[in-house]
Amino acid sequence: MTTLSAFNRFTDQLSEQDQLMPVLFIGHGSPMNGIEDNEFSRRWTKLAREIPIPKAVLVVSAHWLSRGTRITAMDFPETIHDFGGFPKALFDLQYKAPGDLSVAKETAALIKSTQVELDHDWGLDHGTWTVVRHMYPQANIPVLQLSIDASKGPQYQYELARELYNLRKKGVLIIGSGNMVHNLRMVAWDKLNDNEYGYDWAIEMNHTFKELIRNGDHQKLVNYEALGRAALLSIPTPEHYFPLLYVLGLKGKNEEASFFNDKLVGGSLTMTSVKFG
Question: Extradiol ring-cleavage dioxygenase class III enzyme subunit B domain spans which residues (predicted)?
Fold first, then answer.
């Protein structure tokens, strides 16, 4: 297994490489996906085998909202169990991936629109570790999180993401982790195991989101509130949607979208995910 010191030497001077790392938006869904062997977690495992091995993973998770922008900068970020009412096995799980201070500093330096604070208190929340542990189960690749400034709107999030593009040239895998359609108040609990069932508005917006992403119509996606009632029902609060805007901001000019885990859960959630590159 590669040691932390070896990875720190590896990433201490991030250099550009010939191959551009892909960028991913992943619908993370229930925390239980972190320990379950299901169609979603199996796809995350397979995905990691399909893309180049990253030097580091940087995640923008729906579950780290802050005032200002922060990035984790500790040697070993803690595994945060930011949920309740789940089995003990989920709370017992620890994902002990290293962090990487050099990647944190380089990321902070790339962002010119705001001052990024190095954070030593957060860790990896379930928007990160429930996904990444299936992709890199040996926990031998540095994992960092970048917070979402909750005081800013969608245009700000999209434009900030564009400043991170050079990380893709340097072997960093950037993941936005949320859900395109995410309305917990309207979940049909009796339909949780029916991945074909969805409210009409959720089905409509899942289709609309995919079409706009395919067509590269980012401004309509940024201005999602203008898409009508279905959009407002799909995104009652923006935190699970904002990670998608980061991924759109990181898309290269001629990169096409490929979708995976395109499923509905409980009628009012989608696991729909997208890869560029």
Answer: 37-254
Q: Does residue 124 carry a pLDDT above 60?
A: yes
In a domain, 146, yes or no: yes
CA distances from 53 to 21, 170, 207 (A): 9, 12, 31
Residue 257 belongs to a domain:
yes
Token reading at 113: 């629109």
Rounded to an integer, what distance in angstroms lies between the CA atom of residue 145 and that of residue 272?
Answer: 21
pTM for the model stands at: 0.93
Query: Model confidence over 6-40: pLDDT tens digits?
Result: 444 444 457 777 689 999 999 999 999 999 999 99
Q: For tokens 């959720």, what's the residue? A: 202
pLDDT, tens digit, for every residue of 64-95? 999 999 999 999 999 999 999 999 999 999 99
Do 248 and 218 form a contact (C-beta atoms < 8 A)? Answer: yes
Q: Phi and psi of 91, rounded to 5°?
A: -75, -25
Looking at the domain assignment, is residue 208 inside a domain?
no
pLDDT exceeds cutoff 80 at 184: yes
As beta bridge partners, residue 143 has 57
Phi-psi label, residue 216: left if phi above 0, alpha if psi -120 to 50, beta otherwise: left
- Residue 82 tokens read as 């930011």
Q: Which amino acid is at 133?
A: R
SS3 (DSSP) at 120: coil
Q: What total number of domains does the chain contain?
A: 1
The CATH number covering residue 134 comes to: 3.40.830.10
**8 Å CB contact between 145 and 46:** no
Nearest-angstrom CA–CA distance, 202 and 209: 10
Q: Measuring CA to CA, which residue among 79, 82, 81 is closest to residue 97?
A: 79
- pLDDT range class, residue 239, cuts 50, 70, 90: very high
Can you give the residue range of the structural domain that contains 48?
4-184+239-263
Whether residue 75 is contained in a domain is answered as yes
